Amino acid sequence: MERITVLAGGVGGARFVRGLRAHLTDAFADAGSKAPEVTVVANTGDDMWLNGLRICPDLDTVMYTLGDGVDEDQGWGRSGESRRAAAEISAYGRGWDWFTLGDLDLGTHIVRTDMLREGATLTRVTEALCQRWRPGVRLLPMSDQPVETHVRLAQGTSEHMAGELIHFEEWWVRYRAGIPVSEFIQVGLEQASATPEVIEAIGSADAIIMCPSNPVVSVGTIMAVPGVRDALDSTDARIVGLSPIIGGSAVRGMAEQCLQTVGVDATALGVAGFYGARTRGGVLDGWLMDVTDAEYLPSLKELGIRGATAPLWMTDTQATAAMASAALDMATSMATP
Ligand code: FO1
């Protein structure tokens, strides 16, 4: 196995990739064998313009986590952060005071926006930022065009009417996904396309892993980008996903609310059905569930998806490395001879 491509969202995706990297470092420790190259295709649907800066939450979460600069407790943002500039911005009544741009984090947004304004693509900007952070994987935005997830509120709030579209981050951070929504809309999707780098990373992969990220607004958004599904359909790689739901609840974040909005059961089986079997128009060859969800194995078989179970709680890098190893074993066991 020489090339692994991973579709990832934010915190869960970043932590999974860190485990994958640890597993590969360990498995290919002896200098003789070369570890596979890992390419991470990250969701940019959470991106936004804020205070004139381009914010890319999932790209930055992967970059900081793999570059050992992330605030481990939060799972996002920088360690050792301060918020002096944010206090000043708030004092002027500008920006979102419920969405904190820390002083160190602002450095990233300023450099990214600076390079974008010079005409660099988001792919090139991300490559440049990673020169500093050295994540040990290639990190790619899903598209160089903006695709922003917005949610349509099914209920009004003191600031918004029912039926209004607001940015996903406002729903996620300000309202903690506590307001029912009727739909997710990826603004800009029709004008966007997967980058050539993403298409190539999917086409040339030996294994593709769908991270245990939010299947609707993270992995689902990546798959919705024009060009991605075609690439997934035609690649020779085996595609294995890891369930973000364990025993009926989301490992982190609020995936249940997102799944409920799109009418998918918040279970490991429901998410597998949402992705679908590759042999039946979906994307999955294999689906890795937590050991507590073994009851779904027979139903997975009926869906046409090879199932397996392993402990999926990402309690630490060691546990996550074991998950990554189980996912790769699954892909290898299915690889065409
Ligand atoms: N999440 C929060 O819960 N509160 C915040 O104030 C916040 C600020 C923030 C700033 C930059 C950034 O890249 C991420 C930030 N996040 C914050 C996390 C963000 O909501 C998540 O990383 C993803 O968008 C959801 O997975």
User: Please, what is the CATH homologous superfamily of the largest domain?
Assistant: CofD-like domains
- The CATH class of the largest domain, by name, is Alpha Beta
Rg over CA atoms, rounded to whole Å, is 19 Å
How many E-type strands? 14
- Distance N terminus to C terminus? 12 Å
Structural class: alpha/beta
Bound molecules: ligand FO1
Strand and helix order: EHEEEHHHHEEEHEHEHHEEEHHEHEH
Number of domains: 3
**Percent range for helical residues?**
25-40%
Dominant shape: globular
Strand content: 15-25%
In the CATH hierarchy, the architecture of the largest domain is: 3-Layer(aba) Sandwich
Average pLDDT across residues?
95
Note the total helix count. 13
Report the uncertain regions.
none
Strand order of the largest sheet: 5-2-1-9-10-13-14
